[in-house]
């Protein structure tokens, strides 16, 4: 691939390893994220979009005028892209780093002391010293100071919005490209040189779902899964992903027979012999990709007694992780 030594416009966004979901949706439409603003940032699926700069570009974009005289664009295409990205992330089909907005409880005076007001329906109440069972939490607080939660002698709670904050939820550039390929599309921003392989183009007159699936399976499966043969691993991958390439039957599923055919084509280990046994480290080191798991159970920590009550948490610092 030729190196680009003359960066212009959207090229600068390609320097990022990760993009927020909102920015990714705009870039999918070849729109400069800095030129547009969601009127209702907390509700991207229903928000209008106001244009704030870049008036000389975007020929062909349908513009609308708001009641206050400012200009915006028709949000229908943005909403379609955002909804697809959101659904893929929430269903663990697209890997993402999740960010949530949090706040300290409001307090009301009752009798002779303050009591925290209950969280709203769209919020979850978490202990101030919470941890995640896997990875680190990404919590963006809209409070002046996230350390002031116990200023009134409260219970050390945080109220966290259940819906991710899509401005602070990010997706890797390569993960986005892989996901777009799985959907059979190649947005120009993410594929500036296009997709060279015509056999992947579903609109091609000679498109073959079996060929496209076999090549994709060979590309994604680098070694057999734990206690499985190469052929079995390829077949499993085909059952899970083949429908994206048009292999699904009338019920929208890939049959075991078709998966077996694809596995025979893509199988590179044809010499037979015993099924190799791999450790978990081997399996995830360059082999079958890590499964996407964007959300994990939140575990509460007893702030007074630390984590001594839970053997799996005994080594965790009981200081708040902020």
Report Rg: 24 Å
Domains (count): 3
Q: Please give the count of helices.
A: 7
Report the helical percentage.
10-25%
Rounded average pLDDT: 77
Shape label: globular
Main pleated-sheet profile: 4 strands, antiparallel
Give the strand order of the largest sheet, numbering strands 1, 2, ... along the chain: 2-3-5-4
Q: Could you name the ranges where pLDDT drops below 50 across 5 or more consecutive residues?
A: 130-137, 141-154, 279-287, 297-322
DSSP strand count:
14
Précis, in short:
The protein has 322 residues and is an alpha+beta fold. Helix content is 23%, strand content 15%.
How would you portray this structure in words?
There is one protein chain. With 322 residues, the chain is an alpha+beta fold. Helices cover 23% and strands 15% of the residues. The chain has three domains: 9-93, no CATH class; 100-163 and 298-313, no CATH class; 197-284, no CATH class. The strands form five sheets. The chain has a four-stranded antiparallel beta sheet with strand order 2-3-5-4, with no helix packed on it. The chain has a four-stranded mixed beta sheet with strand order 9-12-6-11, with no helix packed on it. Strand 7 and strand 8 (113-116) form a beta hairpin. It is globular, with a radius of gyration of 24 Å. It starts with 17 loop residues before the first strand and ends in a 23-residue tail after the last strand.
């Amino acid at each position: 691939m030729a190196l680009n030594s003359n960066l212009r416009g959207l090229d600068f966004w390609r320097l990022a390893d990760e993009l927020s979901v909102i920015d990714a949706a705009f870039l999918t439409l070849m729109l400069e994220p800095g030129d547009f603003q969601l009127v209702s940032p907390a509700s991207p699926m229903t928000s209008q979009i106001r244009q704030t700069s870049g008036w000389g570009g975007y020929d062909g974009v349908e513009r609308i005028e708001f009641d206050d005289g400012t200009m915006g664009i028709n949000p229908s295409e943005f909403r379609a892209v955002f909804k697809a990205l959101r659904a893929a992330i929430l269903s663990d089909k697209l890997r993402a780093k999740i960010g949530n907005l949090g706040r300290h409880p409001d307090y009301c005076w009752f009798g002779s002391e303050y009591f925290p007001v209950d969280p709203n329906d769209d919020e979850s109440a978490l202990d101030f010293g919470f941890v995640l069972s896997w990875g680190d939490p990404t919590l963006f607080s809209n409070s002046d100071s996230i350390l002031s939660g116990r200023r009134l002698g409260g219970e050390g709670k945080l109220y966290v919005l259940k819906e991710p904050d899509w401005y602070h939820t990010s997706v890797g550039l390569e993960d986005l490209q892989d996901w777009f390929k799985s959907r059979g599309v190649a947005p120009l921003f993410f594929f500036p040189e296009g997709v060279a392989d015509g056999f992947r183009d579903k609109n091609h007159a000679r498109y073959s779902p079996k060929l496209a699936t076999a090549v994709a399976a060979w590309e994604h499966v680098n070694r057999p899964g734990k206690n499985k043969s190469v052929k079995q691993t390829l077949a499993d991958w085909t059952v899970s992903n083949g429908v994206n390439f048009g292999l699904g039957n009338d019920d929208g599923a890939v049959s075991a027979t078709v998966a077996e055919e694809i596995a025979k084509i893509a199988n590179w280990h044809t010499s037979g012999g015993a099924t190799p046994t791999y450790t978990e480290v081997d399996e995830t080191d360059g082999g079958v990709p890590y499964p996407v798991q964007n959300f994990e159970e939140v575990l509460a920590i007893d702030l007074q007694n630390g984590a001594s009550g839970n053997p799996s948490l005994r080594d965790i610092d009981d200081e708040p992780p902020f």
